[in-house]
Amino acid sequence: MSDDSEETERTKRLVAAWRGAERKLSRSLLEPTVGELLGSLAEAPYDMDGPADVYGDGVVTALERKVADLLGTEDAAFFPTGTMAQQIALRCWAGRTGNPVVALHPMSHPERWEGEALTAVSGLRVAHPTTEARPPSAADVEALREPFGTLMVELPLRDAGFLLPTWEELEALTDAARERDAVVHFDGARLWESTVHFGRTLPEIAGLADSVYVSFYKSLGGLSGAALAGPREFVEETRVWRHRYGGQVFRQFPQALSALAGLDRELPRLPSYVAQARMVAGALRPAFADSGVPWARINPEEPHTHQFQVWLPYEADRLTEAGLRQAEETGTVLFRRWSADGPPGLAVTELEITQPGLSWTESDVHEAVSAFVARI
């Protein structure tokens, strides 16, 4: 059997175990069936006898108005993908500033997960204020030698551990960019849950930037899709480029309905998810120690959002298999997939706490860790 075939079979086994488990901290995006996803569309707060959409009107327009209201911006535009949305936003700002250089972290999404699309597709160049696994600081921006037209800030910085700066650091960072005559764009794929850490409202957070991108599936559980929000004239320009990039899809009402449902159902719950994530993170440390694990790291020690990293000194495949066996044999999902994306001998996974995990107690975490370690 080829490596690809083995991985496909393992994925099927993982998803089956996750679906069959009675206890879990969250539900994987791979778990829902077609029927379940279609059924969830009926939960959207939208008149089902109303218009669908034709090239972005109807329910898509309703979603755009909702996002603009939530973020406190003049306008918002729906995009089929966040990759397209951000490329277009950065391209438009480059045209307006006359500078094609984008200052961003090397661990940010465009640098790690988009195949160098900013350069290959949009003709932009990048500069890195810092290479450290933390959000960039005002001092980093001030010290950047090359002039840049746009500062892109990923909130939170997912690959570094879903990290956020403090509110004061974020204010100083945006001020530093404007002192360099640059505009500020927030990669807010997971911006929705950052209000707890910042202690600020969504309009206050979005108000620090010239434009903001938000995702509809990463925290809200939508089918797919994203939005760009900002000044009306700027958003109108991005709509022109959306058509040029092939994003003017004839009908997108399923994505728009699922986004509205997520905003209605998940957005109010996110603060409770963050609080529960902090409880789980705090319980994991003594649970690993009591189970005889020689070393473990929770990153960050107190999660900034409802997602965080766990590092252990074992092979990634071994840990993934242990988690799979735990799900199959006990009906409990603690960890899902592990990655070797780090120093040799260490593996990392991401934990996300959502509605299924709200009932967990510290005792539940200790019990699940003990069962997991026993299967390593």
Write structural notes for this entry.
- This protein is an alpha/beta fold and 376 residues long.
- It has two domains: 3-31 and 269-373, Aspartate Aminotransferase, domain 1 (Alpha-Beta Complex); 43-264, Type I PLP-dependent aspartate aminotransferase-like (Major domain) (Aspartate Aminotransferase, domain 2, 3-Layer(aba) Sandwich).
- It is built from 15 helices and twelve strands.
- Helix 13 crosses helix 15 (362-373).
- Belongs to the threonine aldolase family.
- It comes from Streptomyces nojiriensis.
- Keywords: Pyridoxal phosphate.
Compile the SSE list and pairings:
Blueprint: H1 3-20, E1 23-24, H2 34-40, H3 59-71, E2 75-79, H4 82-97, E3 101-103, H5 109-112, H6 117-120, E4 125-127, H7 138-143, E5 150-154, H8 167-179, E6 183-188, H9 195-198, H10 202-206, E7 211-215, E8 226-230, H11 232-244, H12 253-265, H13 270-290, E9 297-299, E10 307-312, H14 316-330, E11 332-333, E12 347-352, H15 362-373
Parallel strand pairs: 1-11, 3-4, 3-5, 5-6, 6-7
Antiparallel strand pairs: 2-8, 7-8, 9-10, 10-12
Family: Belongs to the threonine aldolase family.
Organism: Streptomyces nojiriensis
Cofactor: pyridoxal 5'-phosphate
- Beta content comes to 5-15%
DSSP strand count: 12
**Terminal-residue CA separation:** 25 Å
For the report, how would you describe the main beta sheet? 7 strands, mixed
Which structural class fits the helix and strand makeup?
alpha/beta
Instruction: Provide the CATH superfamily of the largest domain.
Output: Type I PLP-dependent aspartate aminotransferase-like (Major domain)
Order of helices and strands: HEHHEHEHHEHEHEHHEEHHHEEHEEH
Count of discrete structural domains: 2
Helix content: 40-55%
User: Class of the largest domain in CATH?
Assistant: Alpha Beta
Query: In the CATH classification, which architecture of the largest domain applies?
Result: 3-Layer(aba) Sandwich
Oligomeric state = single chain
Provide the gyration radius in Å.
21 Å
Chain-averaged pLDDT: 96
Determine the number of helices (DSSP H or I, runs of at least 4 residues). 15
Strand order of the largest sheet: 2-8-7-6-5-3-4
Question: What form results from the Cα inertia axes?
Answer: globular
Uncertain segments? none
